[in-house]
Design a protein that fits this description.
Layout (H helix, E strand, L loop, with lengths): L2 H18 L7 H9 L7 H10 L5 H14 L5 H4 L8 H14 L5 H6 L6 H13 L6 H7 L5 H14 L5 H7 L5 H11 L5 H12 L13 H10 L4 H4 L3 H5 L5 H29 L5 H7 L5 H14 L5 H10 L2 H11 L6 H10 L5 H15 L2
Helix pairs in contact: 1-2, 3-4, 4-6, 6-8, 8-10, 9-10, 10-11, 10-12, 11-12, 12-17, 13-17, 14-17, 17-19, 18-19, 19-21, 20-21, 20-22, 21-23, 22-23
Length: 380
């Protein structure tokens, strides 16, 4: 095998392992090992014996058979596997779903769609992931219906898969997922929307970056609806905070308890704002420049860092002065991100001036980032 082919196979293995590692129903380690294995000519007799074992009365035998078939790398096992999606054992069904997902034969798409209604939540989650790994427009509406599943991991898997089908019909349900009570679902939706560079997707991400009201709130302004939405998101944390559910559901809790709740709400929402900033940077929409500049001042550093990266990705000159300001007064992480972003905005003398000053920064990492940015600007 040529070195370039080995390298390409390694990259594909790493990519698939990263995708599947975010969901707990798939074993990414064994999946990675299987993908990296050298393909061998399968023993047809052995495969047929394993297929026959799929009809065994013992569920453990059927399960072992599917696991053994997984190692054969044969695509001729799709037809025998499809009936196993209706097996009486949820473990067998789950193993069959995962194997069909790895094989990637679209013959399995419609049978996998039926698994979105499986009585076992792990099987529903795995089938949602599988449909994303073999994108097909026929999956769109069934996945949209599954986005209302009562199990949050299923909804997160649906949000992941809707981002891989590349149908404009997915934009609206993904924007609705941004308001899911579970923040993991929200993040998956924000990450998926970056694949749809439409005005509706950009607007939804901007609204979530700024807050659910979709405008920049003035300092000290209170938004009761936003507060209540955040309280709903952290509903599962009430017991840890010592606030009785009845008190929270009825009247607002006392000021001390409310402030504690709001602090946890900000922590929960933080990954969503960061994901929105990263997606907007990937989409490179000029409409996002102003909201991203505002996000540089987000109280959570990682949001500001993501906003700086996004502004560097968009390369709009309006970001030069705000980034230069952060390069002077932000903390170390923000200053590094601002330096790297300025290195992406070419043909603007203000960038070089700010970066030259940053080479005297007290933090070595900032100085290195500024030096690299200047070298990049010099080569362009």
């Amino acid at each position: 095998m040529a070195q370039s082919e080995v390298s390409a196979q390694k990259n594909e293995t790493q990519m698939n392992t990263h995708l599947l590692d975010t969901f707990h129903v798939v074993d990414p380690i064994s999946f990675s090992q299987d993908l990296s294995a050298v393909k061998k000519t399968p023993d047809e007799d052995r495969i047929q014996s394993l297929i026959d074992d799929l009809k065994d009365e013992n569920s453990e035998v059927r399960l072992s058979s599917i696991r053994a078939l997984r190692k054969t790398k044969s695509k001729n096992i799709v037809d025998p596997l499809i009936p196993m999606l209706k097996d009486s054992s949820s473990g067998v069904r789950l193993e069959a779903i995962n194997l069909l997902s790895e094989i990637g034969d679209k013959k399995a798409v419609k049978p996998l769609i039926s698994c979105l209604n499986d009585g076992d939540s792990d099987c529903r989650e795995a089938s949602a992931i599988a449909l994303g790994m073999m994108p097909d427009p026929v999956s769109v509406h069934p996945l949209i219906r599954a986005s209302r599943d009562t199990y949050s991991w299923v909804r997160a898997a649906v949000a992941f898969s809707l981002g891989r089908i590349h149908s404009e019909q997915c934009v609206e349900p993904l924007t609705q997922c941004l308001s899911d009570v579970n923040y993991i679902v929200q993040i998956r939706a924000a990450e998926s929307l970056r694949n749809y560079n439409s005005a509706a997707a950009v607007t939804s991400l901007i609204n979530k970056l700024q807050g659910s009201t979709g405008h920049r709130r003035k300092k000290g302004e209170r938004d009761e609806r936003e507060q209540l939405r955040r309280l709903e998101i952290i509903y599962n944390y009430y017991d840890e905070l010592g606030v009785k559910n009845g008190k929270v559901r009825g009247l607002m809790p006392d000021k001390k308890a409310f402030n504690s709740l709001m602090q946890d709400a900000k922590k929960v929402n933080n990954p969503l704002r960061r994901a929105c900033a990263e997606s907007l940077g990937t989409m490179k929409s000029k409409k996002a420049v102003k909201p991203l500049i505002e996000a540089l001042d987000d109280p959570r550093d990682e949001v500001g860092v993501a906003a700086a990266w996004a502004l560097g990705s968009i390369k709009d000159r309006r970001a030069v002065d705000p980034l230069s300001k952060k390069l002077k007064e932000g903390n170390s992480e923000i200053r590094q991100a601002a330096a790297r972003a300025l290195g992406e905005i070419i043909c603007d003398p203000r960038s070089k001036k700010s970066l030259l000053a940053a080479r005297k920064d007290k933090d070595k990492r900032v100085k290195v980032a500024a030096k690299q940015a200047l070298e990049k600007l010099g080569s362009q």
